[in-house]
Amino acid sequence: MPTIAETDRLILRFFESDDVDVIYEIMSNRQVMKFSISGPLNRKQANTFLDSILDTYTSKGFSLWAVHSKEDERVIGFCGHFFHRLEGKDEIELVYRLLPDYWGQGLASEAARAATDYAFNQLGLDRLISFIADNNEASKRVAESSGFKLERETHFYDKPVLVYSLEKKA
Ligand SMILES: CC(C)(COP(=O)(O)OP(=O)(O)OC[C@H]1O[C@@H](n2cnc3c(N)ncnc32)[C@H](O)[C@@H]1OP(=O)(O)O)[C@@H](O)C(=O)NCCC(=O)NCCS
Q1: 30 burial via Cβ count (<10 Å: 0-12, 13-18, 19+)
Q2: List of domains in the chain
Q3: What is the distance in A from the centroid of ligand 1 to the CA of 127?
Q4: How do strand 89-98 and strand 10-14 relate by DSSP bridges?
Q5: Coiled-coil segments, which residues (predicted)?
């Protein structure tokens, strides 16, 4: 499985078609999906979600990466990048979701920093954004730990969200 990045506790790697069970475990979890636009996904929707990740690797060269715990030797979430057309501009979003058993240990921040570094230094991107619900304090802290700053408020699928952003340093 091709590796994207390795940190002290994590390996970020490409998802594969046999990761469908863990995608379902993540995307069907009510706590994980509390702030999401869609809400928890059923198994069919999770299959479609994984298919879209795999298709986007082919069309864009990036998408969400599986976050693998070295200690537990399993995938514990994902972190990576989604393409959006926002207010007439192409934007790349940094996204992260971990299973609740792994929250509060600095793991999402560790994954987000690795994915941000990969985006700027391997993918050649020069700007990332993150959509964050105003009451999602954990997500704000993860974005801030990678250097993101609050830029503005917008609407995404008709819901108000904060846009955090980070430009690559020259
Ligand atoms: C957001 C999420 C990825 C954070 O994961 P995590 O591994 O617990 O994050 P970290 O341990 O790296 O914590 C980051 C910071 O948030 C803080 N934090 C964690 N949970 C918090 C909470 N519920 N309220 C306030 N702060 C919180 C931590 O103390 C830490 O602060 P610090 O940087 O000052 O030390 C996880 O909560 C999650 O998957 N949530 C559901 C999905 C989601 O909302 N994703 C973001 C939008 S795509």
Answers
A1: exposed
A2: 3-125 (3.40.630.30)
A3: 22
A4: unpaired
A5: none
Residue 122 DSSP code: T
Residue 160: left (phi > 0), alpha (psi -120 to 50), or beta? beta
pLDDT tens per residue, range 97-124: 999 999 999 999 999 999 999 999 999 9
CB-count burial class (<10 Å; 0-12, 13-18, 19+) for 148: buried
100 lines ligand 1 (CB under 6 A): no
Per-residue pLDDT at 2: 86
| Alpha-helix runs per DSSP H in the chain | 20-27, 43-60, 107-121, 137-145
